[in-house]
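Figure 6 in text form: structure in, sequence out.
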């Protein structure tokens, strides 16, 4: 602390003002965005060139949704670096891996094998939930959570498989739903979120409607979120991303592999991407679940993150598609206006 204080006191008044200016300017933009939007917003931003950061409701746990797939990938690649797995090792899909969500693996024939490398690519590229389940099963939940706890820090709560998420949510409707097999969970998910999903769960477990604890899927998810699983502070998540780009979590080869899977050099226009200039390379991962959405980004992650900007943002109690998308795009625009307007690209 004495060193940090000494460095702070050594700054000139102009340097103090510049440090305050960007944080004040960004906070004002985030507050305006938050005021104009229902629900909740949390944002953490850190400049890796000088260590300055801004926290906006980022020190409390946020549900990570599919953003958990980055710590999953890190834990898997740490096993590769330790010689316990190979990236070309083939892993076979089991019936217990199947779960609804993006990607094609849910429909793969039992026993079909995929390389570790391709599973990481599918898990991060299209957010394939079955690929995530298969990788977690391979390394074990204890290994995953030991890694995640170390890197996500204070406020971290246990990461689970995507199957367990579904069982925990539907178990809020009726305890028997917590034992539904994977195939039935996939079938239930074919019905849209709302009363039809509740009815699909009821039919799957074979109980009368009068025995359900609630008839509201919103209430089931809200009760599940309160339990805190698959959550972390945005400061903790941002710290993990900082360690990643600084080369402190993985070997150089594994770091490069993860950058590729996180779409380094490939740009879209989705959520925060839409607000960040296309001249700025990024790595990123989104996360979406009922009334929850996140987008985790590092701008300029190359060169050990020397010029990097970490941005971790989540929303709650918004429609995860129609409302959250523009809000997260607005976060990207706010950071860009304050920190990237004159930033050179490389």
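Output sequence:
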């Amino acid at each position: 602390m004495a060193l940090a204080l000494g460095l702070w006191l050594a700054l000139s008044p102009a340097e103090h003002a510049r440090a305050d200016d960007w944080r004040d300017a960004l906070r004002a933009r985030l507050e305006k965005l938050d005021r104009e939007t229902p629900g909740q917003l949390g944002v953490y931003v850190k400049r890796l060139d000088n260590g300055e950061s801004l926290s906006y409701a980022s020190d409390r746990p946020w549900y990570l949704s599919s953003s958990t797939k980055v710590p999953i990938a890190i834990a898997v690649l740490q096993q590769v670096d330790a010689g316990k797995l190979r990236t070309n090792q083939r892993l076979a899909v089991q019936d217990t891996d199947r779960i609804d969500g993006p990607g094609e693996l849910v429909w793969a024939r039992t026993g079909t094998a995929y390389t570790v490398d391709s599973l990481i690519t599918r898990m991060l590229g299209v957010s394939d939930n079955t690929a995530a389940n298969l990788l977690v099963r391979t390394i074990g939940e204890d290994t995953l959570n030991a890694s995640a706890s170390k890197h996500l820090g204070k406020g971290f709560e246990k990461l689970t498989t995507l199957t367990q998420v579904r069982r925990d949510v539907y178990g809020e409707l009726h305890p028997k739903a917590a034992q539904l097999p994977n195939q039935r969970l996939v079938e239930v998910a074919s019905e849209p979120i709302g009363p039809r999903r509740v009815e699909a769960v009821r039919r799957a477990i074979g109980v009368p409607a009068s025995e359900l604890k609630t008839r509201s899927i919103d209430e089931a998810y809200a009760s599940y979120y309160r339990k805190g699983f698959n959550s972390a502070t945005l400061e903790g998540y941002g710290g993990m991303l900082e360690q990643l780009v600084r080369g402190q979590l993985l070997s150089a080869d594994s770091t490069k592999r993860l950058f590729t899977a996180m779409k380094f050099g490939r740009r879209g226009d989705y959520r925060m991407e839409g607000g960040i200039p296309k001249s700025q390379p990024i790595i990123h991962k989104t996360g979406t679940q009922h009334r929850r959405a996140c987008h985790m980004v590092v701008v300029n992650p190359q060169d050990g993150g020397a010029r990097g900007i970490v941005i971790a943002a989540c929303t709650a109690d918004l429609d995860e598609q129609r409302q959250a998308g523009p809000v997260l795009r607005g976060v990207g625009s706010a950071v860009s206006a304050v920190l990237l307007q004159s930033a050179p690209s490389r």
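Caption detail: The CA atoms of residues 6 and 105 lie 55 Å apart.
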